[in-house]
Amino acid sequence: MIEFIIAGVVVGVISGFFGVGGGTILVPILMALGLDIKEAIAISIVQMVFSSIFGSYLNFKRGTLKISSTIFFGLGGLVGSFFSGFIIKNVSSLSLKYVFLGVVLFAIYRFFKAPHKQDLPPLENKPLFFVIGIGIGMFATSIGIGGALILTPIMVGFLRYDVKEAVGAGLFFVVFSSISGFFSMYVNGLLHLKLGLIVGISSLLGVYLGIHLAHKTDAKKHKNMILVLNFVILGLIIKELV
């Protein structure tokens, strides 16, 4: 049991610092602890509810979360994530692993190409944000991540958001996708509540520490550390596939 508590704290730090739900690193950790990918995904969804709500509250209090337009990503994610339980129930574990691998490769590519500081103002298109949110919510939650790993590179690489703004918006998106995914897991009989609560509650301390560290890190270094995280995740997934 102690290993799940430690995993929760570690994933909480990662969630707060990188603006992700935590599933990007938690799913491989849980798989390394002997759980099937579908069990790991269900636990990670519960954990993401805790980390994203608490983390978004802290970011809002610090003034780094702007809700007015980015909420449309979340509303789209709320719709898309509801289909995640159906996808998990009908798609093989091996296929989910390869989708996970593809998502990480996409994130690495977009972050490598994008500048850490934008010269032009960000694009604002609420209907487009909603559609993007649906797509991310549908597929990201199905592989056990909240969607920030996909949304943040899109915001930085295509919509001209700064890294700090994209990180805050990414974690806020996870609030919507994880809550919707939580209910989808429940409806489809996939919810692993006990372990999810243990990991989720443990992650709150880590989230607080991670956000504190993120606000003390400059944008260029923050971007480079996000790339490092993605390479770590890539290595863990490849290890599971070989």
Keywords summarizing the entry:
242 residues, mainly alpha, 0% strand, globular
Provide an overview of this structure:
The protein has 242 residues and is mainly alpha-helical. Helices cover 79% and strands 0% of the residues. The chain contains eleven helices and no strands. Helix 6 runs parallel beside helix 8. The longest helix has 25 residues, at 37-61. It starts with a helix and ends with a helix.
- Gap between N and C termini, in Å? 28 Å
Low-confidence region ranges: none
User: Which bin fits the share of residues in helices?
Assistant: over 70%
Secondary structure tally, helices: 11
**Tally of domains:** 1
Mean pLDDT: 83
Using the CA coordinates, give the radius of gyration.
Answer: 16 Å
**Strand-pairing-aware structural class:** mainly alpha
Number of DSSP strands? 0
Compressed to H and E, one letter per element, the order equals HHHHHHHHHHH
Largest beta sheet, briefly? none
| Overall geometric form | globular
Beta-strand fraction estimate: under 5%
